[in-house]
Amino acid sequence: MKGIYLDYAAATPVDRRVVEAMLPYFTKDFGNPGSLHSYGQRASAAVFSARQTIASALGAQYPEIIFTGSATEANNLVLRGIMRRFPKPRIIISAIEHESILNAAQDLVQNLVDPVIIPVSKEGIIDLKKLKAALNEHTALVSVMYANNETGVIQPIAEIAKIVKEYRNSNIETRKKIPFKIQDSSFEFPLFHTDAVQAFQYLDCTVDSLGVDLLTISSQKIYGPKGVGALYVRSNPPAGGIGVNREYPIDAAISGGGQEGGLRSGTENVPGIVGFDKAVELVETMREKESQRVCELRDYAWQGIKKIFPNAQTNGSLKDRLPNNLNFYIPKMLGEKMLVALDLKGIAISSGSACSARSIDPSHVLLAMGFKNDRAKNSLRLTLGRPTTKIEIDAFLKTLTGVL
Ligand code: PLP
Fold first, then answer.
1. Predicted TM-score (pTM) of this structure
2. Would the CB of 363 count as within 6 Å of ligand 1?
3. Which has fewest Cβ within 10 Å: 25, 129, 313, 349?
4. How are strands ordered across the β-sheet holding 380-383?
5. Could you read off the pLDDT of 51-82 as tens digits, one per residue?
């Protein structure tokens, strides 16, 4: 039997059109974008085109797009890059962030960063009152993901942006008294970052409508190649000037040849960036229709699961969630066992987030939502994607009955 893959939040296959766009950049147009000759110019033009496509998708300016080697790296660049501007900065994050934020924040405690972790409700939504109360004049950054990778639950990003902005405006005078390096900067802090890795495919991620200063996306979650991420960084043109020499509100986390506006040195992954360009272009043309299509299939899958297991419960409501995500718990069922049994029948689903799925620890996201260890350990996640069909969902439901 052909396998059925229902784990698209973990990885997506690279779209054939993406592969085709990438191929010449492995062999024919292999130049280094930093070289002055025509080989270099062709590679540089391809990177420029990708920067423009992604900037346009985010409603940003092209020098504000910084290519990285992954979303993990982009998230780390935000936290490590801001830390270099502040003595003892406070960084406010939610309890359900991806490990690339949570663990980076914990690592930075040794650099005197003060991470504050804001709880979420039973539905998986951040507590806005607690977030507001945590803001103080030492706060350099607020980072809250747009949609969670395990539950798909969508956070009120525009509302958080409003809270951060209000605080920022009310705090300008207080800040002037603090001898921060930021005194020399034309930016007001705290900055607001969102990890939009899971959201980008389905939700509007234009940075002005969200009100964010930094935003992370990843190629590998949108049918592009692995090993490429991008960080949007709100920036200012140089004093009195225009052009690419921007002033950024964060510093580089690594040193080198000064690529990517000096924020991410290292020769650009040109084929990967070209693939990312094409993948973003495809998302932009398909977003609305595809969201509706997978949402209908997801709801159909849930009705089917409820017929087999009437006591199954979703983790978080189905309302404020990505259209392709179903995260649920079946009382008295062992999640890992179900996963293995389904895998033996050729069906791939997940019991947690991709990056921590190999661990048997209970999900930190479900624990943060107030669920007990058993539920946090034994819940299952289905995430649908472009290749998912009703035939596949029917086959999954049939197999699920059999596995019982
Ligand atoms: N952020 C979110 C929300 C994710 O889901 C993931 C990966 O699953 C990442 C960040 C990290 O992405 P990558 O593994 O491409 O670095």
1. 0.96
2. no
3. 129
4. 313-314, 325-329, 380-383
5. 999 999 999 999 999 999 999 999 999 999 99
